[in-house]
Design brief:
Layout: H1 3-27, H2 35-46, E1 50-51, H3 52-59, H4 63-75, E2 79-83, E3 91-95, H5 97-117, H6 123-141
Antiparallel strand pairs: 1-3, 2-3
Organism: Nitratireductor aquimarinus
Pfam families: MarR
InterPro entries: HTH_MarR-typ, MarR/SlyA-like, Tscrpt_reg_MarR-type_CS, WH-like_DNA-bd_sf, WH_DNA-bd_sf
Amino acid sequence: MSDPDRHKLGLLIHDVARLMRMRFQEKGNQYGLSSVQWGLLFRLMKEDGVPQARLAEFLEVEPISVSRMVDRMAENGWVVRRAGRMDRRVRMIHITQKAREACDSIRQISTSVYDEALLDMAEDERRVLVGALNKMAANLCATVSGGNGQTACP
């Protein structure tokens, strides 16, 4: 990679992620969820029953912000809070049936945004892109921690 391209890499990754979030928000606005709330739901679809503190780390926001976000999402039936099994003071966040039922529509929106982003790319280019991003993530996960001894990787 030439030096000028190397300097663009971080900005390109950031811009693509931002543009995809914006496009996803536009297509999914009928659900009344912000892009950060979508991120929270996607995390819970992968791993249900996550402590609020872990969600704050994942979303890179303050714990109080996650608490308020979860309040709003719980009021609208997207998530529920339950006491942790090992420590009842820990609040675990779980996805609701409403969110599970919306999952297919959410996946269709995601697919639409991904298809739009990958338009005019050949299948082998797509595979190379995803493979390269996976390698980058793995390289960085091997060296980055959240400062508290826990990995910063999902």
